[in-house]
Amino acid sequence: MISKTLMKQTVKNNIVLWAVLTGIQVLMVAGVASAGTNLQQTALAYYNMLPGLISAIYVIITGNKLLAQQVDKGTMAYVLSNPIKRSKVTATQAVFFLGSLFLMFALSAASHCIAHYIGSGGITATEIGHVVLLNLGLFCLNAALSGVCFLASSVFNLSKYAIAVGGGLVGAQILMSIMGMFGETFQWMRNFTLVTLFDIGSVLSPEPDSNAFVWKFIVLAAVGMITYTIGSVAFSKRDLPL
Amino acid sequence: MSQLNDIIDIQDLTKDFGQERGIFGVNLQIRQGEVFGLAGINGSGKSTIMRHLMGFLHPSNGRSSIAGKDCWHSAAEIKRKVGYIPGEIAFPDVNSGLDFLHLQADYMGLRSMSYANELIEQLNLDPTAKLKRMSKGMKQKTAIVNAFMCDSDILLLDEPTTGLDPLMQKSFTEIIKQEKKKGKTIFMSSHMWGEMESTCDRVAFLKEGRIVHVVDMKTILGNELNKEYKIEFNNQNDYSAILARPFDFIQKKEEYNQVVIRVLDTDVNKLFDVLSTMDVRFISHKPYTLEACFREIYNQMEVS
Asked: Are residues B134 and B33 in the same domain?
């Protein structure tokens, strides 16, 4: 399914940015959660604003590096001069992209729980559940956003177009979700961004049958699956100017 | 037409990039164990043919296959048997030349680097140098080692000697000869005439994406039936006398009393009959070179 050699190479080339951004995120959530306040409030404050921004940087830069940049520079010629199918190349890159995002939010969730435990002198099972769900939601959101960048990276020969289109779309989504928070005038924008499907309110709702977030997370995951699949197929079928 | 021992088979291969650019109806059959050269000016489509063979480009029309497998559909499978030097070398993001060679060996499942080390020595390469600091020639050498180290049966070399100094070009020629002895099939594009003359069995001329001629090296470089001789006389009388004879004069240099005559091997005795009564300073044979052949065909094409 995936190429071990390429995976090693991909990890080597992308781990620094991943480590820096994951580190920032882990420290940030720890800082917010260790204040000792109610988890509901810290969660609303934190998950509404910050993590989307940090992971978006990672998604945009890494998305480009995984395919488009290698075609642009011509280094992909040396990958494909080996007995590796193009579909194996895309599968390897996709597994890395999704895996690194999953790990990013797993670490954030762990950091959140630990910091809350220390800051508040304990943590309930419900609270752990909330943190896990929120980070799962963030992962689903980023699966969708990274899929958009992966698709752009698959179809463009030049980095600048992959960044402009992939990064532009992801940036616009994040921006619209932030604008949407600034009062009535911009409220409508929330209808046009995937970020809205990361329904924090529904996750944190005290009502026991509040599960609107479930289908929303599924939609996000589905967007990710579709964009990754189309990207892989497109990359396998197109001319590469190597 | 294609035969069983044609290891590389290109049939009516067409890739139209628009504006007259691309390759059009290319037909080439390369036999097992053959060293085949592809010549042509910049932009004539040499790399485009290579890229089809590597499965990077999908043909607009026609097909190409290596060892019976389609170059587009079985691209990955074919690579088990193919060593490749890209026309434009861009190494992956690794530290040194050695790191790169190990990375590629890892992809190919190559365990022993002994042949790689042999090649490194032959090319006088320092593989521990950082890739980013390497000169063009060093990069090219690294690419050459990479292409040959897996002992692949088929080699696709896109301008393999660009950036190499003349001494290294010679080492490269030696490597090609040694690979040919092992029975390797080599398909290379180049614009170094000398290099192709000393290695290739056949050379195809490419012009504006079309094959205009394929030369068998056995028919040139002194083996041509129609040979050119440069003859210089000691006096002007003989010079004038020979001009009166019905020979095919390619060149006349009155100031040296010198002529260049083209004679068919079957008529060569007629020439010597005439010369036997004359005062000849020297006579030398001018072998028909690949370059002369290329120029001739190229000019014919331009005129028509």
From this structure: yes
Is the Cβ–Cβ distance between B6 and B31 less than 8 Å? yes
pTM over 0.80: yes
> Does a structural domain hold residue B301?
no
Residue B192 sits in which domain range? 6-218
Question: Residue A165 is part of which domain span?
Answer: 4-237
A242 part of a folded domain:
no
Same domain for B63 and B34? yes
- The ipTM of this complex is 0.88
Sign of CA dihedral A230, A232, A235, A238: negative
Look at strands B202-207 and B35-39 and give their pairing: parallel
Q: Are residues B136 and B204 in the same domain?
A: yes
Q: Does residue A131 contact residue A112 with C-beta atoms inside 8 Å?
A: yes
Residue B260, phi then psi, degrees to nearest 5? -120, 125
Which residue in chain B has the smallest CA separation from A89? B76
CATH number of the structural domain spanning residue B206: 3.40.50.300
Residue B292 lies in a domain: no
Shortest CA gap A3–chain B (Å): 8
Interface with chain A: mutation pick from B21, B53, B58, B93, highest number of A CBs within 10 Å: B93
DSSP A34-72: TT---HHHHHHHHHHHHHHHHHHHHHHHHHHHHTHHHHH
- The total domain count for chain B is 2
Mark out chain B residues that contact chain A at CB-CB < 8 A.
51, 54-58, 75-80, 82, 84, 86, 88-94, 103-104, 106-108
Cβ B90–A77 below 8 Å, yes or no? yes
Q: Is residue A233 part of a domain?
A: yes
Each residue's pLDDT, cut to its tens digit, for chain B (304 residues) gives: 556 678 999 999 999 998 889 999 999 999 999 999 999 888 889 999 999 999 999 999 999 999 999 999 999 999 999 999 999 999 999 999 999 999 999 999 998 999 999 999 999 999 999 999 999 999 999 999 999 999 999 999 999 998 899 889 999 999 999 999 999 999 999 888 888 888 999 999 999 999 998 988 888 877 777 888 888 888 888 888 777 778 888 888 888 888 888 888 888 888 887 778 888 888 888 888 888 888 888 888 777 6
